[in-house]
Amino acid sequence: MIGGAFSIHSKITQPPLSSTEKPTRLTCSSVNLREFRFAQTMIFAIEEINKSEFLLPNVSIGYRIYDNCGSTLSSMRAVMALMNGDEWTVGKSCSGQSAVHAIIGESESSSTIVLSRSTGPFKIPVISHSATCECLSNRKEYPSFFRTIASDLYQSRALAQLVKHFGWTWVGAINSDSDYGNNGMAIFLAAAKEEGVCVEYTVKFYREEPEKLMKVVEVIRKSTARVIVGFLAHVEMNNLLEQLILHNITGLQFIGVEAWITANSLVTPTSFSVLGGSLGFAVQKANISGLDDYLIKDFWETELKCKETTSCKENQDLIELKDYHDDVAELRYSSNIYKAIYAVAHSLHSILKCSKSRECDNTVKVTPLQVVESLKQVNFTIKNGDQVWFDSTGAAVARYEVVNWQRGSDDSVQFKPVGYYDASLPPGQKFVLKTEAIMWPGGKKELPVSVCSESCHPGTFKVLQKGKPVCCYDCITCAEGEISNSTDSNDCKKCPEEYWSNENRDACVLKNVEFLYFTEVMGIILVFFTLFGVLLTLIVATLFLINKDTPLVKANNSELSFLLLFSLTLCFLCSLTFIARPSEWSCMLRHTAFGITFVLCISCVLGKTIVVLMAFRATLPGSSVMKWFGPAQQRLSVLGFTLIQVLICILWLTINPPFPLKNMIHYKEKIILECALGSPVGFWAVLGYIGLLALLCFVLAFLARKLPDNFNEAKFITFSMLIFCAVWITFIPAYVSSPGKFTVAVEIFAILASSYGLLLCIFAPKCFIIVLKPELNTKKHLMGKTG
């Protein structure tokens, strides 16, 4: 004997409880067509087994089916009746034997929990076809519970994966306030958190709580989430649907569970405006040969014994369904009922030691505990090819169809399969979706968007909004030198040292390398003035060479003059070493060449200054000073002063020479390629020595400024040294403050300015006389003898 408990009616009317007389039976109303089909399928499977020659060949299975009317109170009555019988008896008589060997049911988890806890102490197996609450997987609390459907553990996780797959990170969540809804939603919320999905609100209600339902509707109306996950039993979903239609709340994307996503009771003329485009997981369709004919025709002729509706007086509300068969094509749970019945049959087949060669042993006394233990071992295939077995928790393998509410060509509502989920497949193959086949709410083909904040594009990063979930954030542009090259980046990454962020802050690009080029405008101008200075120097040297025998050239110490012109040429040319990309050799050359050539130049000027002073002193009576500073001494003084600078440069290059450096400190967005000083002491020693000689030269020239005008060269030397010192004193702060290539430009400018100053101040007056006033180029004029 197999028992069955289904909610064939969905409403119950309780009798008055006066406690003065025996309560009358509960009266039920409002037929639930889907549950009625479950009862029909159970009868079909039992009759098919009873006709089988291979399964329980000489054993017949009977059945007792109870209607719990969708009430846990009525469920308890059904349980007691299935265990003890339905007779109203008085006395202590008790056979100790259950009235049934197994119970099929119930459809909802809460009622199934009542059923399983009641039968648990008696070890009566309960096999549910649609109770999916994960709580029923606890074998300590429910050791004799089995189900031909998977636990909500898989469905809840799959829901979170489905939501994440479509990029919906901001959803609402509604569940039935029952074991089914609360447990399923708890698993979904945990899985959603792992997937990075945020839930704007979580609300729940029970079918008999209209006030809570109205609060749920208000929450939905005010929310910003466009996607709602509904972990609801079909009764609660029907109640919610009625209110949403009443308040004209449409255009939302519902994500449903197996309990309601394919429930025909939800299909009404107005329901598609709310549920059109809904997606959800459904039990796979039943494909059992002979079942459709039985449900539509045979059942009415054999079980209710009537062919004409008018001939049936009992079960009048059921008889009204006789000619209705629109739902048969969409039956899904019927296969689970079919599998459950056959699982019990195979268990009994094993206990009674049935085989093909001989009949079953009817002498074996079958106990419910034996059936429980045998069910754990069953493994068979039904006629449509599905394999039936139970895992360690008593559940079946998780296999779901992903269905989408769509309009058919005849304007009917269809539950179109658009994918599947199979937990038995390897990772990566479990979840398959045909996105192009999905119809979204409002008949649209575009994927709806449901996010708290729009995605942060590359180049920005997320900053969470205070007091809100992690999916609510602001997008902040990365700082300079930092990038993010992915969408929704949590932070920005610094570019490598030689790279910098591009304008969009989504890629690192090589920094611009800055140095003074020959080809840029500034470089061309400096080269022009360098070469022009060299040209002027060569012209002066040529002019002096042509007029070397004239009094003016002889009087100005032609040997020192030519040496000075040579050193000035080197001074002009050394500025070229400061242009172009710095290298190890160019860095050492530019500073040492500059230092040595300028000392050579100043030494020559200093020599000329001393010669002027000595020449004047030599004209005094009894003076023999010129013999102490003749041509040999002049050469030695120039050589001596220059050798000191050479020695300083050698020490500098030996101890810590200048070297090329990539300066990335002064500017973050570019690299300044410059020559590091190596030893700052060496640099300032070179510069200081030049300054010392220039100062000495200036002082001596200043002392000689009042000598006779026609002979006096000291005034021009004084003026040239004044310009020289002014240029280099100005150079120091400009050199320190000017970054990058401008530092080099300032140094070149100082070299050129001081070189031009020396050239023009010392030689321009003489060239003026030689070229334009040749009549003044006489010994008489130079000696100051005017007539």
Care to give the gist of this entry?
With 787 residues, this protein is an alpha/beta fold.
Q: What characteristics describe this protein?
A:
Rossmann fold, 8-stranded mixed beta sheet, alpha/beta, rod-shaped, 5-stranded parallel beta sheet, 787 residues, Rhopdopsin 7-helix transmembrane proteins
Summarize the helices and strands and which ones pair or pack:
Layout: E1 2-6, E2 9-13, E3 27-31, H1 33-51, E4 63-67, H2 72-84, E5 102-104, H3 109-119, E6 126-128, E7 145-147, H4 152-165, E8 170-176, H5 179-195, E9 198-205, H6 210-222, E10 227-231, H7 234-246, E11 253-256, H8 272-275, E12 279-282, H9 291-302, H10 316-319, H11 334-351, H12 368-375, E13 379-381, E14 387-389, E15 399-407, E16 413-422, E17 431-433, E18 460-464, E19 473-477, E20 482-483, E21 493-494, E22 499-501, E23 508-510, E24 512-514, H13 521-546, H14 551-555, H15 558-574, H16 584-618, H17 631-655, E25 659-663, E26 670-676, H18 680-703, H19 714-737, H20 741-772, H21 779-782
Parallel strand pairs: 1-4, 1-5, 5-6, 6-7, 8-9, 8-10, 10-11, 11-12, 24-26
Antiparallel strand pairs: 2-3, 12-15, 13-14, 15-16, 16-17, 18-19, 20-21, 22-23, 25-26
